[in-house]
Amino acid sequence: MGALVRFDADGHWLDTWVCDGLIGDELARAGLAWGRWPVRHFEGSDAEAVRTAYGEEIAALRERFEVRSADRVRLAPGHAGWPALRAQFLAEHTHSDAEIRFFLEGAGLFYLRSGEGYLGLLCEAGEWVALPAGTRHFFDAGAEPDFDALRLFADPQGWIAQPADDSSLPALPLFDDFVEHLLALTGHEAD
Ligand SMILES: [Fe+2]
User: Fold this and answer.
1) pTM of the predicted model, to two decimals?
2) Cα within 13 Å of Cα(120), Cβ side
3) Ligand 1 mean position to 92 CA, how many Å?
4) Which of 7, 30, 81, 93 has the fewest CB neighbours in a 10 Å radius?
5) Taken in order 124, 111, 148, 71, is the CA torsion positive or negative?
6) What is the separation, in whole angstroms, between the first and last Cα of the chain?
7) What is the pLDDT of residues 70-105, one digit of tens each?
8) Largest separation between any pair of C-alpha atoms in the chain
C-alpha cells in the first residue's frame, strides 16, 4: 500500500492519503504523474527483463516522458554501501531531467516541496512516479534498504543531482519513522 502525506512548513504531519485515486489527484495537483501497474513475477535481474515483463506500460511512459534509457537498482538489507548512498539520497536536490521510478519490490519514500509545505510519497511494489525536472526532493529507504526499482531517464547519460540549499528543511520523518507512524494511523501492524 502506497501512501501520500502532506506536511506543513514545520514538518508537522497533516493529511494522509492511502487511496489510489486520491493519491493520484493530489500528486497531479503538485505536478507529478503517478500510477500503479499489476505486480508481475518474472525472471531476470536487469532492466531488460522489466522491459519485457512490462512492455506496454513502459512503452507508454517512454512516449510520455521521452525516455531514452533505463537501469535497475536493487538494494537489499545489509548493503555495505548503503550508509554513503543514503546520505547522498537524503540531501535535497533537483535534476534537469524528470526522475521516473517504478518499484518492482520493496518500498522507498520521496519527499518534495509543495506550496509552503512538503509531500511525503511512499512508493511500493507496482507503483511508479515521475517527478518533473527541477522538483526539489530527497529520497530514503530506511536503515536497511529493501527495494528493487527501475529508473527511467530522458537523458541517455542518466541524471545528475544538483544540490539544493536545504538549510530550511524541517525535521521530516525518515522512512522507518514514516512507516511506523503510517501503520499506527491506519491500524496496521508492522510485518
Ligand atoms: Fe533525485
Assistant:
1) 0.94
2) 31
3) 8
4) 81
5) positive
6) 13
7) 999 999 999 999 999 999 999 999 988 899 999 999
8) 45
What is the per-residue pLDDT for 180? 96
Cell of 48: 531488460
- Inter-residue contact 61 to 89 (CB < 8 Å): no
22 Cα–ligand 1 center, Å: 24
**Calpha distance 110→126 (Å, rounded):** 16
Cα dihedral: 40, 34, 185, 9 (round 10) = 150
Distance CA(84)–CA(150), nearest Å, equals 21
CA of 187 from ligand 1 middle (Å) equals: 31
Q: How far is the CA of 89 from the centre of ligand 1 (A)?
A: 7
Q: Closest Cα to residue 109, out of 79, 83, 82, 147?
A: 147
Would you call 171 exposed, middle or buried from its count of C-beta atoms within 10 A (0-12, 13-18, 19+)?
exposed
How far, in Å, from the CA of 60 to the mean position of ligand 1?
A: 22
d(CA 99, CA 112): 12
Q: What share of the chain is helix, strand, coil (3-state, %, to 5)?
A: 25, 35, 40
| Helix and strand counts by DSSP (H, E) for the chain | 5, 11
Q: What is the pLDDT of residue 186?
A: 86
